[in-house]
Amino acid sequence: MPNAQQQWLQAFTGGFIATLLFHQGVLALFWLGGLIPAAPWNMNPVPPLGIPQVLSLAFWGGVWGIPVWWLIRRWQGVPHWFAALIAGAIGPTLVAMLVVFPLKGIEVNATKVVGGLIVNAAWGLGLACWMRLNRSRWNQ
Questions:
Q1: Closest C-alpha to 6, from 73, 88, 55
Q2: How far apart are CA 110 and CA 126, in angstroms?
Q3: How many CB atoms lie within 10 A of CB 7?
Q4: What is the pTM of this model?
Q5: Pairing with 1, which of 40, 98, 101, 126 sits 20 to 30 Å away (CA)?
Q6: H or E element: which one contains 124?
């Protein structure tokens, strides 16, 4: 059984990787379908550290991975996947739309809310996949 530090590291890593693969993967599908103007995996530097935008986003995905992992870690089967989908969709989207977007002066509209729910739900499923792949490393 892993210690708490190992679990939190796994949670962060899962959220980070889920951002790069699942969140950005869905954005890629939106972009390829002509639904959004900006390409995924944006490598433009962002303040204050000048790191690529996608890595900044993945860092925050890792941070989000910790509470979502904690929330869904004890469930099995369908409840596990459903909780990952719902927690992934709602938590990050609410914070993005109610806090991050207004701070950055980005307009919030229904299209962005729905898009956010979809890409963040995909992120939640990615985190759940990471949890399943590393099942022996986290506490039931």
A1: 73
A2: 24
A3: 19
A4: 0.91
A5: 126
A6: helix 110-133
